[in-house]
């Protein structure tokens, strides 16, 4: 079976139900994708094809007496609840570091090996993309659960941090393609109730994944205090989130008489943000997407009088205050965006989301 968690694509589900590969030294069945990673740690994992390779009796017996559930009980016995368990859909880096942490470094058997992300404090240097010039420069980062913040400093000897990012509003998501680095991590936080993006990486894969899990650990402990009655299962989905969808669309302004402009859109929970460039620090604008009970809806197409769009596949989002008009380049894009918007709109709003909606309505 694949090494990841629950949210698998159809191909992955098929692969993981009928895995064609196995690690005969660990006694586990694995998918094709994970087999390549296992081959890179031959001192720990010896890989064979279930169908194509020859198996001797001892190897078959070992597989029969072990298996994935036995391995999971052993190698994940002390896995902290906040540690991110990747799925088939996650980037190569997350999947590789998960397999190495589990089998090579045995981090979830020996709790002391979890210090880099579970200690509640972490500091180090990350390459950070400059807001204005796009250059990556080495910056010191400090994560402190006690202070409830992640900070970074523009100079090593700087007394004051360049930014203080509250753990309460922090998110981290791996974005290798967008950032142009296989270890690229996008960190977002709220600054004056607007979303601020920073883009970082580290040459060492373990290092950047440890930072990611340290952020998740800090969020986990913050939420445990904020919601004392909540179970781990309630809190873990809130530790970090991937974007529901990203990509280019065209948009027009509130009067809907201006021309349409191409912008990069990001759907982050209920915040639809648009940027001139995918790596911009701040969004040019944000739209709150509420629920159908609160008069939000998404329609295919644009009003008949609409002019100025170069792309033909329109989407109209209706909110209590106004309509937002977008156009997609292809029909597939249009369908994917509509499906994403419908998922958000069909979800009832949480009490805290009403406060966010109110803020959006009062934005200048």
From TrEMBL:
It holds the Pfam family ArfGap. The keyword rRNA-binding does not apply. Residues 119-220, 242-346 form the PH domain. GO terms for molecular function: anion binding; GTPase activator activity; phosphatidylinositol bisphosphate binding; zinc ion binding. Residues 16-116 form the Arf-GAP domain. Keywords: Cytoplasm, GTPase activation, Metal-binding, Repeat, Zinc, Zinc-finger. It is found in: Cytoplasm. PANTHER family: ARF-GAP WITH DUAL PH DOMAIN-CONTAINING PROTEIN 1, ARF-GAP WITH DUAL PH DOMAIN-CONTAINING PROTEIN 1-LIKE PROTEIN. This is ArfGAP with dual PH domains 1. The gene is ADAP1.
